[in-house]
From TrEMBL:
Residues 230-250 are annotated as: Disordered. This is Ribonuclease BN (tRNA processing enzyme). It comes from Streptomyces griseomycini. Pfam families: Lactamase_B_2. Residues 33-217 form the Metallo-beta-lactamase domain. Gene3D superfamilies: Ribonuclease Z/Hydroxyacylglutathione hydrolase-like.
């Protein structure tokens, strides 16, 4: 009944050698959930599980570095011999199915339903798979975006997705055992805040009272090591860098 997170990819905004974009495998309560499907993560998912066995896919927002490998997943599950016993639930912002269908040149997304059961997320959305509960919270980004709070057997995992500083993100992470948080930008920019600096990530973790902070989705103006060090100084608690292939326990 443990709650674990395996890192599939962390890159922003495009994949690099041996570094896919955002994607994670969350396991707990007898369920396996693929969290974000950034470019390159479907291949990495296959290192850790049979994609036909996953219970659900959860997509924070529809930017390509978090969702593009849904296309690879559809091909693998529909045509590549990885056939699931029933359509896989995909929790994603509204319009996800239509985007996939459009890429494939189909005017109607209905043909996806035999493979991917796409269900729109909304603020406060709750889904349960086995003894794992997934709750979505709308966060501040330049498109519709959600953070994730997952709970199982008294343990809590929280994930920022892409977000600027906001009260909803702090509440999402409240008392989490493991908080996976982006630190995409080096400093504050003029205008709307749609990403977090390392200091923002650490401050959010501190305000939320999380047990451990895991830094991910570090942008090209930073190194993961520097971002983690800065987030740790702001947080004042246990802080680590998310790295491909590693598994963390909540």
């Amino acid at each position: 009944m443990s709650l674990t997170l395996t890192v599939l990819g962390t890159a922003s905004p495009h994949p690099g050698p041996d570094r896919p974009c955002s994607g994670y495998l969350l396991r707990g309560g007898g369920a396996e959930v693929w969290v974000d499907a950034g470019t390159g993560t479907f291949a990495e998912l296959q290192r850790h599980t049979d994609p036909a066995r996953i219970d659900a896919v959860w997509i924070s927002h529809l930017h390509a570095d978090h969702s593009a490998d849904l296309l690879a997943a559809f091909y693998g599950l529909a045509y590549g011999g990885l056939t699931p016993p029933e359509p896989v639930p995909v929790y994603a912002p509204d319009g996800c199915a239509q985007r996939l269908a459009g890429f494939l040149g189909r005017p109607d997304a209905g043909f996806l339903r035999g493979t991917l059961d796409v269900r729109p997320l909304y603020d406060g959305h709750v889904a349960r798979h086995g003894d794992l509960t997934l709750t979505a919270r709308a966060v501040a980004h330049d498109v519709e975006a959600y953070g994730l709070r997952a709970a199982c057997a008294g343990k809590v995992f929280a994930y920022s997705g892409d977000s600027g500083p906001c009260a909803a993100l702090t509440e999402l992470a409240r008392d989490a055992d493991l908080f996976l948080c982006e630190a995409d930008v080096d400093g504050h920019r003029d205008g709307e805040r749609v990403h977090l600096t390392p200091e923002d990530a650490g401050a959010t973790a501190r305000a939320a009272g999380v047990r451990e902070l895991l830094v991910t989705h570090v942008g090209p103006t930073l190194t993961p090591e520097a971002a983690t060090a800065r987030a740790a100084a702001s947080f004042g608690g246990p802080t680590a860098t998310a790295r491909e292939g590693r598994t963390h326990r909540a």
